[in-house]
Specification:
The complex is a heterodimer of chains A (279) and B (284). Chain A has 279 residues and is α/β, with parallel strands linked by helices. Chain A is built from 9 helices and 9 strands. Chain B has 284 residues and is mainly α. Classes of the chains: A alpha/beta (279), B mainly alpha (284).
């Protein structure tokens, strides 16, 4: 059974500022798309036609295709700006692809940059509920898991104190704990293991391994090769928006490492100019 | 891809954005989110204020007294035989709810961008929660209005209670939908053009002057009346006054016009909002 299928997915960003001329451009594009239904918003061909300067377009992802079976753990590897975050954003439905289709079975939970969704004036307890429903749980589900969430985070004593009085570490630990108990069918983990102290980090790794054992499909992004090879069975190596390698983790990591020194000189110069806001 | 295969997927994400694709099913699944948002709004609004919920009373009463002095006593605006206090207060209370719905909905996408660029949920849940939490404040103000209404009725003011009062919930619902529609439209546009955010406050101010809050429809010249009823708030406010106090001049067809305009505004607003939310992470 497939849990996720990514088919010919591309994501194109327009570079530069959104300005007055764009309103006019939008209207033209809209009229055109109405009269010629083959064209639509975000169609790179049409965009290229409208704006002949190819430099204005940035391909964050080019024709990426892969399939993930249920229970698989995939490590996504690549340099900064290779399209890892864009891919995860597309899968978590934060933005739409410019081309291609993504199919998902089950609930997607993402541990992208924890700490979002907390309201300072509300107590830890209220925030656990708030964060939980934002992630897609129901109040009943949260109530059932509430004690586990709180004891995992280790902030039991302060659970009825407004979150604005928490230390930043406590808030982040509580937020992570809510997400860790989401029990989604597909879990997306993006660099979150940089939170908390060593003890909490170890607990997170243990939790992730437990989740994997429970049959959860996981997409894992990390710069720490050791983490990826420990957790993931399969590796996807992204390079400048294209899927360079799809196979076992060790080979993917090797290819990534091999590209590193060569990539620094030509790409390191071009990168900052090319991708200011899409990274 | 055959049909049976397709049905087993929970979500299919493509670049296509169908014109009318409101995620009602998803909104229902996320209903707890709406409930908690409303709850949070209600408890957090008066945290660290001294008078707390008393502001619900002070704000409309203060405006009513000021309007009564300026427009009633000094300028001498006619009020369709309705006691000026009730006339102004009815308009102010409805207008206040409408403008709250409009301005809160209009800031949804830009105001929550930090959250929206991190996690997916049906964005429409936020403006819906906001019109519900504003409803609470409105209902308290409406209760105060009815308190004065009973007082005036008791003292023999030329107003009548009638069965027509049953239309009031419909008018309230219409007000909320109109505010939601216009607010969502503005929210969608502000993801790309921030100017609109600055335009909302003056827009609401201007709109109020053309909404029969401070004058009755009957005071406008006949040719202007036909233009005024295109503003859906005018028939709402005038119908409210007529239904509750039995005075004034409003025809059923005028209200039907406002209903059509409201539904149009709602449809356009939701379509634009829905389009904008899908790619707002890229444009905001």
């Amino acid at each position: 059974m497939l849990a996720l299928s990514v088919e010919n997915v591309s994501k194109v960003y327009r570079l530069g500022e959104i300005n007055r001329q764009q309103l006019l451009g939008d209207m033209k594009r809209w009229v055109k798309s109405k009269f010629n239904p083959a064209h639509s918003f975000g169609d790179p061909e049409l965009e290229a036609e409208q704006e002949p300067r190819a430099l204005d377009l940035f391909h964050a992802l080019r024709n990426v295709s892969f399939e993930v079976s249920e229970g698989d753990t995939i490590g996504i590897i690549g340099a900064n700006g290779a399209g890892k975050s864009t891919l995860l954003k597309l899968i978590s439905r934060i933005t739409l692809p410019s081309q291609g289709t993504i199919r998902i079975r089950g609930r997607v939970g993402s541990l992208l940059e924890v700490g979002t969704g907390f309201q300072g004036v509300m107590t830890g307890r209220d925030n656990v509920y708030m964060k939980g429903v934002i992630l897609g749980m129901t109040r009943r589900e949260i109530a059932a898991k509430f004690d586990d969430i709180v004891s995992f985070s280790g902030v039991e004593k302060f659970i009825d104190t407004p979150v604005k009085r928490y230390s930043s570490g406590m808030a982040v630990r509580l937020a992570f704990s809510v997400a860790a108990f989401l029990e989604p069918e597909i879990l997306i983990v993006d660099e979150v293991l940089s939170v908390g102290d060593q003890q909490f980090k170890d607990r997170c790794v243990a939790k992730i391994e437990e989740v994997i054992k429970g049959g959860c499909t996981m997409l894992f992004v990390s710069h720490v090769g050791e983490m990826v090879s420990r957790v993931c069975r399969r590796g996807l190596y992204l390079k400048s928006g294209s899927l360079e390698y799809d196979g076992d983790t060790a080979t993917a990591l090797e290819k990534y490492e091999a590209d590193q020194p060569a990539a620094t000189s030509p790409q390191g110069v071009a990168r900052p100019k090319q991708a200011p806001k899409t990274a | 891809m055959t049909n049976s295969e397709q049905q087993t997927w929970t979500a299919v994400i493509t670049s296509r954005k169908p014109l009318f694709d409101i995620p009602f099913g998803e909104l229902w699944r996320y209903r707890d989110l709406i409930v908690l948002y409303v709850h949070r709004d209600l408890i957090s609004i008066h945290k660290q204020t001294i008078l707390g919920p008393l502001w619900y009373f002070i704000q409309p009463l203060l405006s009513t007294v000021v309007y009564q002095i300026i427009f009633g006593k000094i300028i001498g605006v006619p009020t369709d035989r309705i006691p000026p206090f009730l006339f102004f207060m009815s308009g102010i209370v409805i207008w206040h709810y409408f403008s709250a719905c409009l301005s809160k909905s209009s800031s949804t996408l830009t105001g929550n961008s930090g959250l929206f660029t991190k996690v997916y949920f049906p964005r429409l849940a936020i403006p819906i929660a906001q019109i519900i939490s504003s409803l609470w404040q409105f209902l308290i103000q409406l209760a105060i209005f009815f308190g004065f209404y009973v007082y005036f009725l008791w003292n023999g003011a030329p107003i009548h209670f009638s069965y027509r009062i049953i239309i009031v919930p419909v008018l309230i619902f219409q007000t909320a939908l109109l505010g939601l529609g216009v607010g969502c439209f503005i929210a969608a546009m502000t993801t790309r053009f921030r100017d609109l955010q600055l335009a909302v406050a003056p827009l609401i101010q201007m709109w109020m002057y053309g909404s029969c809050i401070i004058f009755p429809l009957s005071a406008a010249p006949p040719e202007l009346q036909n233009i005024l009823i295109l503003n859906p708030i005018v028939p709402i406010v005038e119908s409210f006054r007529f239904a509750v106090m039995g005075q004034g001049q409003i025809e059923i067809w005028q209200w039907l016009v406002s209903l059509v305009v409201t539904l149009l505004a709602l449809a356009v607003g939701l379509i634009m909002f829905n389009r904008a939310e899908k790619t707002m992470a890229d444009t905001i």
